[in-house]
Design brief:
Blueprint lengths: L6 H5 L3 E11 L7 E6 L6 E5 L7 H4 L3 E5 L5 E3 L2 E3 L2 E2 L1 E4 L4 E4 L14
Antiparallel strand pairs: 1-2, 1-4, 2-3, 4-7, 5-6, 8-9
Amino acid sequence: MNDIINYADFQKLDIRMGTVISCERVEGSEKLLCIMLDVGEETPRQILSGIAKWFNPEDLVGKQVPVIINLEPRKMMGLESQGMILMADNMLEESVSLLHPQNKVPNGSVVR
């Protein structure tokens, strides 16, 4: 059974829509992509994601994705990750899918 969290804990998540403005493989890693996103802030946000197995970096540029922006920054491979991109994990097929809005929305739009 999944761990249950209370509604107050869920409300702490700040999930926003962002557009991938650049993406590249992280040197020395087979899993990580370094993704720069416009999430409606003054400067782009850098997020490291272990999705290199499923996505070519150039295919992600321009895509809108939901991002948790209030996670504590984390260092991986000497780089700082400033959030997390939400994806659907199909464990049966060992693949992941991007989540994206039906229509384009402004960067920084709140996900509810």
